[in-house]
Amino acid sequence: QVQLVESGGGSVQAGGSLKLSCVVSGYTYNSYCMGWFRQAPGKEREGVAFIDSDGSTSGVDSVKGRFTISKDNAKNTLYLQMNSLKPEDTAMYYCALRTWKRYCSVPGGRTESADFVLWGQGTQVTVSS
């Protein structure tokens, strides 16, 4: 049984930093695409940043230069380092995994919510002005 468990959310002031973690258990294959999504109240869930099993990364324009996605294979952990946080970054953040690697990028990839079948429970990030 595959499980994804996020942690690291919290409340910070604008300009601050947070590092989210997502521990993956029960997934034994070498090919995958993983991503961080977020959902603010009243808004649709949106993809933020993605990484494939080869380590290729991408992110949406609104977080480029501020957020960095990474992974530690030895720890089976996905990270999202978030710097220069803005109030508009406030949302529930989710990590997600799909078992095929191709098109794991934004823009133009297969990185919509519906493309991912494995999800964590979410961790709240709140940024105050």
Task: Walk me through the structure.
With 129 residues, the chain is mainly beta. It has no helices and 11 strands. The strands form 2 sheets. Strands 2, 4, 5, 6, 9, 10 and 11 form a 7-stranded mixed β-sheet that branches. Strands 1-3-8-7 form a 4-stranded antiparallel β-sheet, with no helix packed on it. Strand 5 and strand 6 form a beta hairpin.
Structural class: mainly beta
Question: How many E strands?
Answer: 11
Specify the overall morphology: globular
- Structural Rg: 14 Å
One letter per element, helices H and strands E, the order comes to EEEEEEEEEEE
* Spatial separation of the terminal alpha carbons: 41 Å
Mean pLDDT: 96
> With helices defined by DSSP (H or I, 4 residues minimum), what is the helix count?
0
Largest sheet: 7 strands, mixed
- Estimated share of beta-strand residues: over 45%
Helix content: under 10%
Weakly predicted, low-confidence segments: none
Keywords:
129 residues; mainly beta; 7-stranded mixed beta sheet; 4-stranded antiparallel beta sheet; 11 strands; globular
Describe the protein's topology.
Blueprint: E1 3-7, E2 10-13, E3 18-25, E4 33-39, E5 46-52, E6 57-59, E7 67-72, E8 77-82, E9 91-98, E10 118-119, E11 123-128
Parallel strand pairs: 2-11
Antiparallel strand pairs: 1-3, 3-8, 4-5, 4-9, 5-6, 7-8, 9-10, 9-11
